[in-house]
Each structure stands twice: as C-alpha cells, then as structure tokens.
Specification:
This protein is α/β, with parallel strands linked by helices and 480 residues long. The chain has 2 domains: 16-260 and 462-479, Aldehyde Dehydrogenase, Chain A, domain 1; 265-444, Aldehyde Dehydrogenase, Chain A, domain 2 (3-Layer(aba) Sandwich), CATH 3.40.309.10. 40% of the residues lie in helices and 18% in strands. The protein is built from 16 helices and 20 strands. The chain has helices at residues 61-79, 84-100, 102-113, 117-138, 142-145, 166-179, 194-205, 220-227, 241-250, 274-285, 303-317, 338-353, 385-388, 404-412, 427-436, 469-474; strands at residues 24-25, 27-29, 32-34, 41-46, 51-57, 151-153, 156-160, 183-187, 213-215, 234-238, 256-259, 265-268, 298-302, 357-360, 375-378, 395-401, 419-423, 441-444, 463-464, 477-479. The strands form 5 sheets. It has a 7-stranded mixed sheet, sandwiched between helices. A 6-stranded mixed sheet has the order 9-8-7-10-11-19, sandwiched between helices. Helix 13 links the parallel strand 15 and strand 16 (395-401). Helix 2 packs antiparallel against helix 4. The longest helix has 22 residues, at 117-138. The mean pLDDT is 95. It binds adenosine-5'-diphosphate (ADP).
C-alpha cells in the first residue's frame, strides 16, 4: 500500500494557563470540598506526558455514607419541595455556565484524559451543555412526556461513570436525574476525576442547594460502596460489562440502568459513498483513540468493494496525526492509562497470533506518554478475539461479506448490541436492516452522532435502560 507522510505543521498547542489546578481535591459533599474520613488520596496522571497532575480524595464507606446522607437530606428538605420550573431554571443556569467556561473544561478534559482538544472542545463540552439545556426544558413538562400517568422522582440516585467521556457522562447522568427531581451522588472514574470536580464547583456557582449534587472520588471500592448502598433509590452505571454484572448482583435497589460494552459493526455496501464511509469509519474508531463504547471496531465491507475501501482507508489512517492532545492539529491523542495501553497491546498480539494481518500507521509516536499507532487488521475471522472482544483502542478489525443477510448475521454475531452503522445508497435497505440489527443505536451513512433527544443504550451484554430522550427520563421516575 502507498505510504502517505503527513504534512509538517508547526505545533499549535492550546495554553493550559486557564486551568487552575489545585494541589489536592476533596470530595464534594453537602456543597463543600471535604477530604476522605481516613485522609486517603490518589493521584491522577496526564497520559500524554506521564506527569502527575494532582491528587484527589480516595473515598471509603464512610465518605459514601456521608454523601448519600447529604443527598437524602437535600431531597427531603429542599429538592422535592421546590417547583419543577425552578429545577429547570437551575439546569438552565448550569448549561449557560458550562458554555461560558467551555474552554477551561475542554483543556482540563484533554489534560486529564488524553483526548484531542478538537474532540473535547467541539464534541464533549458542547454536548454536555446541550444535555443540561435539553433537560432544563423537560423539568416542568414531565406530565406531557407521560400523559395520563402520575410521575414521581425516585429519590437519591447513585451514578458511576467511566473515563472515556468524563464530563459528558457526568452530564448524561446528572441532567435527567435532576430534571426529574432526584438528588445525586456521582462517582467519576479514578483516572479522570477532574472535570466532574470542576463541574461540582460550577454547580455550586449556579446556586444549587447544598447536597443536591455530591461527588465522591476514588476507584473500584468507592464505586462498589455506592452501588451496593442501601440508602440509594437508583443506580445508573456506565462501564465494563464485568463490573456491570457485579453491580447487578450487589445493588439493593431494583432501579438499575447499565450502559456497558460494545463491539459495533460498521457495514459498508458496494453502493455506499465510499469516501464518506471512510470518514465515518475514521470518526468511529480512530478519533478519540477508540475510547468509545459504541466505537465501530468491526468493519464489514462488501467483497466487491473491499480492496478499494481498504486502500482508501489505509491512505487516510496513515495521514492521521497522533500526539499532544492539546495541539489543535492532533487527530489521535493519548491512551487514557498504562493499564488500557497494555490491554490494547495484548489484544493486538492475540490478533497476530490467531492469524490476522496487522497494518499500522508509521507516524512516529511521542517518546513520553501512552500512545498507540492507528491500526487495522485484515484477514480477520469472526472467531478471533479481536473480532469478539471490546478493544477500546484505535484498532479496527476488517471482515468481508457477500449478501445483506450475511452482513446482518455477522454484525449480530456478538455478545454485545450497543450500536451499528450502515452505509448504502438505498433507503429501503437501511429500513429493512434496521429491523434486523440487534443494536440500540443504528447510524445510517454517518457514525457516532449524538443528540440529547435520542435515547442511547444497548441490547444483550451491552446493558439495559436508555439514556437521553423521553425514554431516558423514565429511568429516573416512578411512573404510575
Ligand atoms: P472501564 O473498563 O471502562 O474502566 P470499569 O467498569 O472498570 O470500566 O469502570 C467504570 C467505573 O466503575 C469507574 O468509575 C470505576 O471506578 C467503577 N468501578 C470499578 N469497579 C467497580 C465495582 N466493583 N463496583 C462499582 N463500581 C466500580
């Protein structure tokens, strides 16, 4: 295949001067920053240079108890008593403040998580604000969403989120919970706690009553203390299928929504606009380092156009810029943690060992930091681990098919069912396939497009419950 050296651009880094990192961050409980009861802390590292950014509190049972009690008090005494219109006004204020401080949030997100500033600036932060705007509108219109039914908040919601979209996931969880009249204890991921903590400060600036939103930081044990807490009325979790199953067994509440892994198939038919499809595939797995649970990590391409598509894709992959997440020209940033990088390397090795052929971008990777060259495999069999397991990295597995039936069968041949993509010129084919695909979201002639009004969630081992839209509201309400 042809080599495609990238053009040399001068560095164009965003300045991090706007971000005021504290030396240490506490939990946010009852409107105040507080240390852990036992004083324990952890560090968060910038994955692009392996330097410690700052330390934050590592929560234990006592801290989770305190946060749940604070959320209960705020629910009983304030949040359940104020009018729905007032709840909407608070959410609206949060959305406006997020927009005003979007640059600071975008830079902090890229520093803490490693995603390119282009993604955090243009996707994560605007979408997070959009979720608050969208749900601000619903707060006083819930009876219209569920006509002839009575709706009540559930009470205290425990929410546990992963590291791939730290602020956006917080917004996905907080906005509907608050709009529906619940109070919250949120547990961000251990490698990316900073934007959730900054959001907590912003929520305080928005004047929310203390205790309505609480943030407890820490790792798996902190999450487990929250998800198995007897004092919460709802658990919403986004993360791995393994932890999701554990939570399902240990949660005391029946109100559970789980958004778990995925192994999405992007299906390209011979009549598809191929150049557009290439951009969709790139967006689906390489931007954001493949750190997306709905990443299009399997490409199913019709045999008649396979060689042409792979040639175009190869050309495009080799022009992706990998490097400093804060540089505005960067396409692919840093892998979130050393552990995640090891997981990607292990799966890639298994792909080679099982007989698939590995192709990689030849661009030099930065010497410091955790990076992985954009890669793809050809000659992949559906039984190979790289075709079955979630890789969560910039690695695509390419397979071919001959007929639409074969495409659907291969796409559905997975334990997951979160998302899928169809690329074809024929509208009728899209509608036929939509009914046949076992995926919560199916994109047609596009990929990884999100909107707060459209419900998101999975089939099979990708979890259950929906987030976003009217369906997402139901997850935070008792509907009678
Ligand atoms: P990922 O593989 O995406 O890191 P995890 O499921 O390990 O996903 O993590 C997602 C979130 O779940 C993180 O906030 C993490 O701290 C939390 N978590 C990890 N283990 C547990 C557990 N046993 N119970 C509850 N939460 C957990």
């Amino acid at each position: 295949m042809s080599e495609t050296p990238t053009w040399d651009y001068a560095p164009a880094p965003e300045s991090s001067a706007i971000v005021n990192l504290k030396e240490e961050y506490g939990h946010f409980i009852g409107g105040e920053s507080v240390p852990s009861a036992d004083g324990a802390t952890m560090e968060t590292i910038n994955p692009a240079n392996e330097q410690v950014l700052t330390r934050f509190a590592k929560g234990g049972q006592e801290d989770v108890d305190r946060a749940v009690a604070s959320a209960r008090k705020a629910y009983d005494e304030v949040w359940s008593k104020i009018s729905a219109a007032d709840r909407g006004k608070y959410l609206y204020r949060i959305a406006r403040l997020l927009q005003e401080r979007s640059r600071e949030f975008a830079i902090l997100e890229s520093m803490d998580g490693g995603k390119p500033i282009r993604e955090s600036r243009d996707i994560d932060i605007p979408l997070a604000a959009h979720h608050f705007f969208y749900h601000a509108g619903w707060a006083d219109k819930l009876p219209y969403a569920f006509p002839n039914q009575t709706v009540n908040p559930l009470g205290v919601a425990g929410q546990i989120i992963p590291w791939n979209f730290p602020l956006l996931m917080a917004a996905w969880k907080l906005a509907p919970a608050l709009a529906c009249g619940n109070t919250v204890v949120l547990k961000p991921a251990e490698t990316t706690p900073l934007t959730a903590l900054l959001l907590a400060e912003l929520i305080q600036d928005a004047g929310l009553p203390p205790g309505v939103v609480n943030v407890v930081t820490g790792a798996g044990e902190t999450g487990a203390a929250l998800s198995s807490h007897a004092g919460v009325d709802k658990i919403a979790f986004t993360g791995s299928t393994e932890v999701g199953k554990l939570i399902q067994r240990t949660a005391k509440t029946r109100n559970l929504t789980l958004e778990l892994g995925g192994k999405a198939a992007n299906i390209v038919f011979e009549d598809a606009p191929l150049d557009q499809a290439v951009e969709g595939i790139i967006n689906g797995i390489y931007f954001n380092q493949g750190h997306v649970c709905c990443a299009g990590s399997r490409l199913l391409v019709q045999e008649s156009v396979a060689d042409l598509l792979v040639e175009k894709l190869d050309h495009r992959i080799k022009s992706l810029r990998v490097g400093d997440p804060l540089d505005k020209n960067t396409d692919v940033g840093a892998i979130n943690s050393r552990e995640q990088l090891d997981r990607i390397c292990e799966l890639v090795e298994s792909g080679k060992a099982e007989g698939s052929e590995l192709h990689q971008s030849t661009e030099d990777l930065p010497e410091k930091g955790w990076f992985f060259a954009p890669s793809y495999f050809t000659g992949v069999a559906p039984s190979h681990r790289i075709a079955r397991e979630e890789i969560f990295g910039p690695v695509l597995s390419i397979m071919t098919f001959r007929t639409p039936d074969e495409a659907v069968e291969k796409a559905n041949n997975t334990m997951y069912g979160l998302s899928a993509g169809i690329w074809t010129d024929k509208g009728s084919r899209i509608f036929k396939l939509l009914g046949e695909m076992n995926a919560g979201v199916v994109w047609a002639n596009t990929f990884n497009k999100f909107d707060p009004s459209s419900p998101f969630g999975g089939y099979k081992e990708s979890g259950y419950g929906r987030e976003g839209g009217k369906q997402g509201l139901a997850a935070y309400l008792e509907v009678k």
